[in-house]
Design a protein that fits this description.
single chain; 464 residues; alpha/beta; Aspartate Aminotransferase, domain 1; Aspartate Aminotransferase, domain 2; 2 domains; seven-stranded mixed sheet; four-stranded mixed sheet; 16% strand; globular; binds pyridoxal-5'-phosphate
């Protein structure tokens, strides 16, 4: 077979991609006709495509490249680990140094008594682990009927059968027979679109109390756990009102159910603390981690488990695990990534430099005629596109139409911003500098300007 390299013409690469590569979350026929953008290199926060365009990555890949692209230290560690021990399993009474060291380091960083790590290769896998772990925990405690897990509409916990069932993405549940039994969803704390006449604080309390209502409806003796992202990511960077998490914590404590914080995005500095649970002031029994754990340089995730749950699970054989649980190369890369984060003070950079600077620029976009609100926590932000700045109201057009147009204008202006329906979201690398933030905002502003003109011209500037 002919070698396929960066040097082939873009059109040829796109044709091969269309012929053989099925993309996730994509209408592949339409993409095949249009041609996918071919990313060839990256350094820092900048991507290069096969046409030589330099694109600023406002999404850190998929919320994961926290220390930026092109890190020599991570490449070196990977090469060394591959030569020393590229693979060994941890199933049959064996272990290895990268898994030991990474688990110990995560236990040090994680708050409270979250001292135990069950490794997976992704966030989805880790959440599947969580489903089985919390149900088995209650079974071992003599309460096998405690099996219902409560999640949230528009929550995102991954794409496997289990994790997509925990999530509340309607478009995902519509395909493949989801959700699996024993999962219940309550409303999300999305004040901008769903808060009506309530203040954000009233609305946050109301949505948190849906958890108590659900527990009482199901029967408290049947509920195993509640799972939530400290800040919803894929759902549109929905930052909950200040009243929300304290009330969730109160309810979880009152009924003695387990709290799972899905920190796949919010973990490892994204919100300005090591973990989003610290930012939100909650005490989970289990945290799901992935993405930023290795800054995306290798696929690795896991469940960080508190002493009590680990002790109960540890008393029996847990019939669960992945070939690549604690993969030595991925673990070595993750460990080095955490060393870089600590040595360079990346969390402090987010809190003291990047967040305050971006906040000033991001919130200034609220003046734009197409923008209804701007939200930012740490380095995850969103803005609502609006047909009418005077009220919180969706577009008359199908949800996502304005967002898609705006995303296309971002692409054309060499800035990666994603859209979730009609919200634009950003989550840049945590090492982004003020100068790079200026580039990001300048290009985003141009994209918004062009999107506004186009949305108006197409007669889409109408409220529902
Ligand atoms: C991305 C994500 C997941 C799934 O992680 P994968 O590595 O894609 O399987 C789970 N939870 C949250 C909050 C995520 O953002």
């Amino acid at each position: 077979m002919r070698q396929i390299t960066n040097h082939l013409p873009t059109a040829e690469l796109q044709a091969l991609d269309a012929a053989h590569h099925m993309h996730p979350f994509t209408t592949n026929d339409a993409l095949g006709k249009k041609g996918a953008r071919v990313i060839t290199r990256a350094d820092g926060v900048m991507l290069t495509d096969s046409e030589g365009n330099e694109i600023i990555d406002g999404m850190a890949g998929l919320w994961c490249v926290n220390v930026g692209y092109g890190r020599q230290e991570l490449a070196d560690v990977a090469a060394r680990q591959i030569m020393e021990l590229p693979y060994y399993n941890t199933f049959f009474q064996t272990t290895h140094v990268p898994a030991i060291a990474l688990a110990a380091r995560i236990a040090e960083l994680a708050p409270g008594d979250l001292n135990h790590v069950f490794f997976a290769s992704s966030g989805s896998e880790a959440n599947d682990t969580n489903i089985r772990m919390v149900r088995h925990y209650w079974a071992l405690k003599g309460q096998p009927e405690r099996s219902v897990i409560i999640g949230r509409k528009n929550g995102y916990h991954g794409s496997t059968m289990g994790s997509a069932s925990l999530g509340g993405m309607a478009a995902m549940h519509a395909q493949g027979g989801l959700p699996i039994p024993g999962i219940v969803h309550i409303g999300q704390p999305h004040w901008y679109l769903e808060g009506g006449e309530m203040t954000p604080e009233e609305f946050g309390l109301m949505r948190a109390r849906e958890l108590e209502q659900a527990i009482l409806e199901i029967g408290p003796e049947k509920v195993a756990a509640f799972i939530g992202e400290p800040v919803q990511g894929a759902g549109g960077v929905i930052i909950p009102p200040s009243t929300y998490w304290p009330e969730i914590q109160r309810i979880v404590d009152k009924y003695g159910i387990l709290l799972i914080a899905d920190e796949v995005i919010t973990g490892f500095g994204r919100t300005g603390n090591w973990f989003g649970s610290q930012t939100m002031g909650i005490k989970p029994h289990i945290m799901t981690i992935a993405k930023g754990l290795s800054s995306g340089y290798a696929p690795i995730g896991g469940s960080v488990v508190c002493d009590e749950v680990a002790a109960v699970i540890g008393a029996d054989e847990f019939n669960h695990g992945y070939t690549y649980s604690g993969h030595p190369v991925a673990a070595a890369i993750a460990l080095e990534n955490l060393r870089i984060m600590e040595e360079e003070g990346v969390v402090e950079h987010v809190r003291d430099v990047a967040h305050p600077y971006l906040a000033q620029k991001w919130h200034a976009l609220a003046e734009h005629p197409l923008v209804g609100e701007t939200r930012l926590i740490g380095l995850m932000g969103s803005l609502a596109l609006t047909p009418d700045k005077s009220r919180r109201v969706p577009f008359a057009a199908e949800a996502g139409t304005a967002g898609f147009i705006t995303r296309e204008r971002c692409f054309a202006n060499n800035v990666i911003m994603r859209h979730v329906y009609d919200r634009m979201i950003i989550a840049p690398s945590l090492v982004i500098t003020p100068d790079e933030i200026d580039i990001l905002i300048a290009r985003a502003t141009r994209a918004l300007d062009e999107a506004y003109v186009q949305i108006k011209a197409e007669g889409l500037l109408k409220a529902a």
